[in-house]
């Protein structure tokens, strides 16, 4: 692949993960934007950028789909589906320590550091459901349709969406190629089952993920499908629209306003997929074999390797660190922004990302099948 394309994916991956972490920590430590007493330019920029948490999820889904598409493209057709499913299943086993460690952190917070009421009085942040039924339901990807997410880790519903998206893609690909009645019936049955079972939010995220799969499967293109400036402009416009629209369902008459809010992240995914397709081109000059990657490339790769675990693991640790700060050091929740608050947000986010990197090194797996190719 074009080295520029790989660097772009790595950088986008860890930046989107970092943005999601800052987005969540801001909700724990800062007041809402409307409740700010003084709004400096720094505060306004911070609130605007950290409001892009769900947009970063869309970027994450597109990149995941791109890697899946690359895997299927570079594997023999007869073996690609089984190999991808096997790789997803092996990486899925790494979810066990993630679930267990997150549950232990939540138990510690509930029993020892709940003086601020973070685990009991703020259901808007996360509903802490610590039970064996929730644990096993999340292990078998039954959240959020049949079970709540385990503990405070609300991000696990996105992992379930990725898992079922991959299963649906593989079943439908097999049915399409075989044209035999049983595979076709199996594909139709799984699609119908997901239609009945999954909540409406699943389908926009499936669409975002499939945009990435299409980029990985169909590229590289000898010529860009769009002019680079047009692709970047589309992404910027999509992000700006999504951010300014917020949760306003009154932009269009009912029920179109609700549908727009449900599907607006597909627009962000489309913009990012357009930029990725522009950058995914065959290299004009092959990279020198055996050339050592630069320090930036190695750092970029390490940060990207930790991104998927950071998405899946950060919230229980973030809740615990915030609760410790409130109980032991008197740092109240939902404060007005200030230098100390900014410093604490940065420290907690860095601690969560560092812990995710350490967890990746310990479990020896890249959770979620995010990197099946590179």
TrEMBL record:
Organism, as annotated: Massilia rubra
Name the record gives this protein: Acyltransferase 3 domain-containing protein
Record key words, sorted: Membrane, Transmembrane, Transmembrane helix
Transmembrane segments annotated in the record for this chain: 6-24, 45-72, 92-110, 122-142, 154-172, 184-205, 225-241, 262-280, 309-329, 341-360
């Amino acid at each position: 692949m074009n080295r520029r394309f790989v660097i772009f994916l790595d950088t986008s991956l860890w930046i989107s993960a970092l943005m999601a972490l800052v987005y969540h920590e801001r909700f724990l430590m800062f007041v809402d934007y409307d409740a700010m007493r003084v709004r400096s330019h720094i505060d306004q920029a911070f609130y605007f950028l950290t409001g892009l948490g769900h947009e970063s999820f869309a970027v994450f889904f597109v990149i995941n789909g791109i890697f899946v598409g690359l895997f299927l493209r570079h594997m023999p057709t007869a073996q690609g589906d089984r190999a991808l499913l096997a790789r997803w299943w092996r990486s899925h086993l790494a979810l066990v320590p993630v679930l267990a460690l997150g549950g232990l952190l939540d138990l510690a917070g509930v029993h020892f550091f709940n003086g601020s009421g973070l685990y009991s009085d703020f259901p808007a942040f996360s509903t802490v459901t610590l039970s064996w039924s929730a644990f096993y339901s999340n292990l078998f990807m039954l959240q959020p349709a049949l079970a709540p997410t385990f503990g405070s880790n609300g991000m696990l519903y996105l992992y379930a969406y990725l898992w079922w998206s991959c299963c649906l893609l593989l079943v439908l690909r097999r049915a399409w190629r075989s044209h035999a009645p049983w595979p076709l019936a199996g594909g139709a049955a799984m699609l119908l089952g997901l239609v009945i079972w999954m909540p409406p939010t699943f389908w926009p995220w499936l669409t975002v993920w499939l945009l990435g799969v299409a980029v990985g499967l169909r590229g590289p293109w000898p010529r860009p499908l769009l002019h680079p400036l047009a692709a970047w402009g589309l992404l910027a416009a999509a992000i700006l629209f999504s951010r300014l629209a917020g949760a306003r369902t009154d932009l269009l008459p009912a029920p179109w306003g609700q549908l727009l809010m449900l599907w607006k992240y597909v627009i962000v995914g489309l913009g990012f997929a357009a930029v990725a397709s522009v950058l995914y081109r065959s290299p004009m000059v092959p990279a020198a074999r055996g050339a050592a990657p630069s320090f930036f490339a190695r750092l970029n790769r390490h940060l990207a390797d930790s991104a998927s675990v950071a998405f899946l693991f950060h919230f229980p640790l973030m809740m615990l660190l915030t609760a410790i700060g409130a109980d032991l050091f008197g740092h109240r929740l939902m404060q007005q922004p200030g230098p100390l608050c900014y410093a604490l947000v940065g420290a907690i986010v860095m601690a969560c990302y560092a812990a995710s990197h350490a967890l990746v090194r310990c479990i020896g797996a890249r959770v979620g099948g995010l990197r099946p190719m590179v």
